[in-house]
Write a structure and sequence with these properties.
It is built from six helices and 19 strands. With about 300 residues, it is α/β, with parallel strands linked by helices. It folds into two domains: about 10-115 and about 240-305, FAD/NAD(P)-binding domain (3-Layer(bba) Sandwich); about 120-235, FAD/NAD(P)-binding domain, CATH 3.50.50. Strands 1, 2, 5, 6, 7, 8 and 19 form a seven-stranded mixed β-sheet that branches. A five-stranded parallel β-sheet has the order 10-17-11-12-13. Strand 1, helix 1 and strand 2 (about 35-40) form a beta-alpha-beta unit. Helix 4 runs parallel beside helix 5. It comes from Dehalogenimonas etheniformans.
């Protein structure tokens, strides 16, 4: 396909995960002039060890999945730009997308900026980041070979992290604020049968301790103070949507509110994936939402006389 060279793009897509990439591919197939701005290609999926619930793949690693997405993008010569988007605003009928060094304009925008790790907000978390505190098990698990570690959280992300650490750590303590584990039954069962993983329910994290490196985690269980000697703490307590770049209607979790057509409260601005208020946060769902957003944006361009970009 011909590269999109026009100054005012048809659609600018913010993000680099499955929702954003699917949006870009669908929009390009409809001959739209598409510009894609991202920070991490494949988003959180790139940091996943193995993906087992994406249609067409019995199992694929996060890195191989990222390569597959990149290959698909290359088929359409979409020229994704690695730039951090700071703000999206509408001005005189056009959208302006501001990055650290550039200002791009378009007739429509799809925000598929995903979400980032939620922080615990306890003493020691920031101080020991990179020195025992981690948010990415794929990146950091090998550093904890034959060591005791803690995983904070009780959902799918925490379960997956604990299971990945089984390959490396001596002992994994899975600390959750809830009484039980929450997530896919296959993951819960795998955690329960693992001899290396010990589940600690009703744990309220108080502090991460250490000297130059993490050496423990302090918490309480129903008012009783406890301490574990660990060399690593993996924090998996959910995500915060990357929605601060745009002023549209959001829910109490700061997720962008969309309708069944992925429309936001701002005409011409669409959103897809984990940054939105869709209940299910899964890779395959995000990809489907990206396709919907691209189709809706293309129909919007037809209504306003957007024509074909290239």
């Amino acid at each position: 396909m011909v590269k999109c060279e026009q100054e005012i793009k048809d659609i600018i897509i913010v993000g680099g995960g499955p929702a954003a990439i699917t949006s870009a591919i669908y929009a390009a197939r409809m001959k739209r002039c598409v510009w894609m701005l991202y920070e991490v290609l494949a988003g959180q999926a790139s940091l996943t060890s193995n993906i087992e619930n994406y249609t067409g793949f019995r199992m694929i690693s996060g890195s191989d999945f990222t390569d597959t997405l990149q290959d698909h993008l290359d088929d359409y010569d979409l020229q994704p730009m690695k730039e951090k988007v700071l703000e999206v605003r509408k001005n005189d009928g056009l959208f302006e997308v501001k990055t650290g060094g550039n200002l791009y304009k378009s007739k429509a925008v799809i925000v598929a900026s995903g979400a980032r790790h939620r922080e615990l907000g306890v003493p020691g978390e920031k101080e020991f980041l990179g020195h025992g505190v981690a948010y990415c098990v794929i990146c950091d698990a090998p550093f904890f070979r034959n060591k005791d570690v803690a995983v904070v959280g009780g959902g799918n992300s925490a379960l997956t992290t604990a299971l990945e650490l089984v390959k490396y750590a001596s002992r994994i303590y899975l600390l959750s604020k809830n009484e039980g584990l929450m997530g896919e039954q296959t993951l819960i069962q795998a955690v329960k049968v693992s001899e290396k993983i010990e589940f600690v329910p009703s744990a309220k994290i108080l502090k991460i301790t250490g000297d130059k490196f993490v050496n423990g985690i302090e918490f309480e269980v129903k008012g009783t103070a406890k301490n574990l000697e660990v060399r690593g703490v993996f924090i998996e307590i959910g995500y915060i949507p990357n929605s601060e770049i745009i002023d549209v209607k959001k829910n109490n979790r700061n997720e962008i509110i969309i309708n069944e057509r992925n429309e936001t409260s701002e005409e011409g601005l669409f959103a897809a994936g984990d940054v939105t208020n869709i209940e299910i946060k899964q890779i395959v769902v995000a990809a489907g939402e990206g396709a919907k957003a691209a189709l809706a944006a293309s129909q919007y361009l037809d209504r306003i006389g957007g024509g074909y970009g290239h």
